[in-house]
Amino acid sequence: MNQIFNLFRLQQLDSQLDILSTKLNDLETLLQNDDDLQQSLQRLAQQEDTLKQLSHNLSNIENEVKQQNIKIEQSEATLYGGRVNNPKELKDLENEVTSLKKYRTVLEDRELEAMLAVEEQTMILEQTRQEHQQVNQVFETKNADCLREIEQLRKEITHLENEKQILATSIPAEFLDRYQQIRHSKKGIAITGIIDKSCAACGTSLTGGLIQESRTPDKIILCPSCGRILYGG
Ligand SMILES: [Zn+2]
């Protein structure tokens, strides 16, 4: 297996992927700049957030009511348990139970208010969701072509990435590492062909000896000018 050819093929896939990814990115950015959709998404997020806060508040109050009930049960158990006989103490306990119950009413009122607030916000959120669906439908109709193109690009990218994955597994790590390293430092192009006895990437004329050498399988020959791997075919 000629590893230089494999790298050249890998480069073709990578270059294609670079072009498609840029295109996809541009289209996605274009769609993200849709004001109506963005505002609608923002409204939706706000209403969701408000519901979350209100639900949290409700569960706190429910907890307080629960704690208050426990306190009342405990005080009543002492009051009616028969272990306290002192009239003064009994009176104090009675007062305590009354006051605990009074505060429980306050808490229960708050609980009811919190429940209503959650119910109301749930309806508002549902309404906002429906409105968002409408905005989204308008958006999808308006951008149908763009969305189709994005879907197509994603498919192509997945297909190329799978192909790349399969190819990469057949290339030894030392070749791959070298390739990645050069690709990283040379604007995405690590390996290049030879056109008219010159490096196809930078245009430098190559000697006959170098061109001959670049046809040796599994041997990495670099362009003396740009430092990219030469693929002599
Ligand atoms: Zn070059």
What does this structure look like?
With 233 residues, the chain is mainly alpha-helical. The protein folds into two domains: 35-142, Helix Hairpins (Orthogonal Bundle); 172-230, no CATH class. Helix content is 76%, strand content 3%. The strands form two sheets. It has a two-stranded parallel ribbon. A hairpin with a 2-residue loop joins strand 2 (194-195) and strand 3. The longest helix has 56 residues, at 87-142. The structure holds zinc ion. The site of zinc ion (ZN) has 8 residues, from loops.
In short:
This protein is 76% helix and 3% strand.
Strand line-up across the major sheet? 1-4
Q: Report how far apart the termini are.
A: 13 Å
H-E string: HHHHHEEEHE
Domain module count: 2
Number of helices: 6
Strand content: under 5%
Helix/strand-derived category reads mainly alpha
Describe the sheet with the most strands.
2 strands, parallel
What do the pLDDT scores average to? Answer: 96
Descriptors:
4 strands, two-stranded antiparallel ribbon, 233 residues, 2 domains, Helix Hairpins, binds zinc ion, mainly alpha
Write the layout of secondary structure elements.
Elements (H helix, E strand, L loop, with lengths): L2 H30 L2 H46 L6 H56 L1 H26 L3 H13 L5 E2 L1 E2 L2 E2 L8 H6 L15 E2 L3
Parallel strand pairs: 1-4
Antiparallel strand pairs: 2-3
Helix pairs in contact: 1-4, 2-3
The protein binds zinc ion (ZN).
